[in-house]
Amino acid sequence: MTAIHLQDTTTLHNGVKMPWFGLGVFKVEEGPELVNAVKTAIQHGYRSIDTAAIYQNEEGVGQGIREGIEAAGIRREELFVTSKVWNSDLGYESTLKAYETSLEKLGLEYLDLYLIHWPVEGKYKGAWKALETLYKEGRVKSIGVSNFQIHHLEDVMKDAEINPMINQVEYHPRLTQKELQSFCREQGIQLEAWSPLMQGELLDNEVLAEIAKKYNKSTAQVILRWDLQNGVVTIPKSTKEHRIAENASVFDFELTKDEMEQIDSLNQNLRVGPDPDNFDF
Q1: Which residue among 5, 45, 97, 146 has its CA within the 20 to 30 Å range from the CA of 236?
Q2: Which of 46, 55, 99, 114 is flagged as catalytic?
Q3: pTM of the full predicted structure?
Q4: Averaged pLDDT of the chain
């Protein structure tokens, strides 16, 4: 079932409800622009905010959350906040410590979702054990991974007590990740898209522009709608108020089966980010 409004949620395999749509803050530096973007998104009805330790902006995100909650007159419990442990902190003890640091910077008492950012060989299993500990202690509502391929997921699940609830990966019409999505679906792991707009590279694509014209929508809106109709959680990044509002205006039209297939056929297995099987950071 496709989300029909901005605050619609998908239920993760542990029963936690996660919004289908959220705000990403990758590459948004600390400062008023960041605080304002988070606050604005919350005021516009967004209920999911995604950051990471490596973005070095958790403090500003925390401030934006506090200001947004106050401005929108909602409670912290109504928000879904995600952060991620960076590669240099992977390992049992260091991941536990990294979690505390993220909480402190964000000024929060818990996270709704904590992810392992990249599958660093030999290190992600210890980190997963730490995430399980945090989860069992009730310090975090749900746990997951990011940038994991099928073989990474199989490796983690072989020894896991708790399977990942989310796998956040690069996902857009040039990288449709069909096999990975099928695998995640079978395992009850919700797929989530980062860089859904391919960092702007798809915005003048003719096929997408043609579909957008039909619905009087932008190319970005068509892509984000495609994510949702594919059952993929999506977190587009923007700092501009009109774009934050526009990105979320994707619940008043529906792509046909043919249009979905047309967009699927743009796949070239093309990444704008690093390859999870071949990265060195």
Answers
A1: 97
A2: 55
A3: 0.97
A4: 97
